[in-house]
Q: What sequence folds into this?
């Protein structure tokens, strides 16, 4: 058997032609997907969360105990200035549950990095999190929160009973601090479909969200991001239970849009798992598909070429279907 570096080199030079690459090759003639630039480092601080959402690709829950260690955090902070990225996104699980969350935010801001936190929103209602939102405001941390619908029934079906009302209360508290109102304090919301469908038009849905949430609950937000459900984790298990996995795969293939390829998030960011392993995106992280470099560890972050070959799979069709999907929403109008 070839040693690991040699096998990795072969995989990088001749990636298997999965369904995503076949569609890309037919559309563009390219057989591999390459990175463009390194603009964002996404840090997954751990898999523990106060919720257990049906659509969570990480499988986060209150029972998970994975957290990024202090040693890995220190290695990461040493690498970030050398990587020349501009943005850092903290995610999980609920990243706010990490014991070093606040010192980490302080150090990232001291490095003049823009920081964004992906939040489940209801974390702000926990008794020991009462000072969290003012802390984030004082450090001008951007927030992006899960809100898969503006109707209570649909949200609670995906995220658990009572989550909608808790999210509304959390947004009210954030609005009171300027989030979603002050341009320097963005509060984005995330929509994802409740079933095996593609998201509707992002601009139209954002207008509908804004009207409904403002009129019914008196709350404001900055931007709505529509995200396509990835056929992995709990969502894939649900598709299989319903016998819809094959039909959903066909839907994604038929909706493949080559115009999304230029802006795919994996071409501009790297994800770091709590154990220090590096990935091209949060979905590859969930599937355990590491970045295709000889040393996919956080200690090598600054040496990874921006034009690296990106590891792909059939799941990548979700990001390239229709208007496209990324951590920031649709990719094309």
A:
């Amino acid at each position: 058997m070839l040693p690991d570096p040699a096998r990795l080199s072969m995989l990088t030079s001749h990636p298997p032609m999965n369904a995503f690459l076949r569609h890309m090759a037919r559309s563009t003639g390219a057989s591999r997907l390459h990175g463009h630039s390194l603009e964002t480092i996404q840090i997954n601080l751990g898999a523990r969360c106060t919720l257990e959402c049906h659509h969570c690709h990480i499988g986060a829950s209150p029972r998970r105990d994975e957290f990024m260690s202090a040693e890995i955090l220190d290695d990461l902070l040493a690498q970030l200035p050398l990587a020349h990225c501009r943005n850092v996104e903290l995610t999980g699980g609920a990243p706010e549950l990490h014991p070093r969350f606040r010192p980490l935010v302080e150090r990232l801001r001291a490095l003049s990095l823009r920081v964004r936190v992906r939040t489940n929103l209801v974390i702000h209602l926990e008794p020991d999190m009462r000072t969290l939102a003012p802390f984030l405001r004082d450090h001008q941390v951007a927030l992006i929160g899960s809100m898969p619908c503006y109707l209570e029934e649909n949200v609670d079906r995906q995220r658990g009973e009572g989550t909608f009302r808790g999210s509304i209360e959390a947004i009210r508290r954030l609005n009171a601090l300027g989030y979603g109102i002050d341009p320097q304090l963005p509060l984005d919301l995330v929509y994802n479909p409740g079933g095996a469908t593609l998201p509707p038009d992002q601009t139209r849905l954002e207008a509908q969200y804004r009207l409904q949430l403002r009129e019914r609950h008196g709350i404001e937000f900055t931007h709505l991001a529509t995200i396509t459900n990835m056929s992995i984790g709990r969502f894939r298990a649900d598709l299989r239970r319903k016998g819809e996995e094959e039909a959903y795969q066909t839907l994604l293939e038929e909706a493949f849009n080559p115009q999304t390829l230029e802006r795919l998030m994996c071409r501009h960011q790297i994800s770091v798992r709590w154990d220090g392993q590096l990935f091209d995106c949060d979905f590859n992280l969930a599937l355990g598909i590491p970045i295709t470099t000889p040393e996919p560890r956080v200690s090598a972050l600054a040496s990874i070429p921006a034009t690296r070959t990106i590891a792909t799979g059939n799941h990548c069709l979700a990001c390239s279907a229709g208007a496209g999907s990324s951590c920031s929403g649709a990719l094309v109008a």
In short: Strands lie at 40-44, 87-91, 114-119, 142-146, 187-191, 223-226, 269-272, 278-279. The chain has eleven helices and eight strands. The chain has one domain: 46-255+268-318.
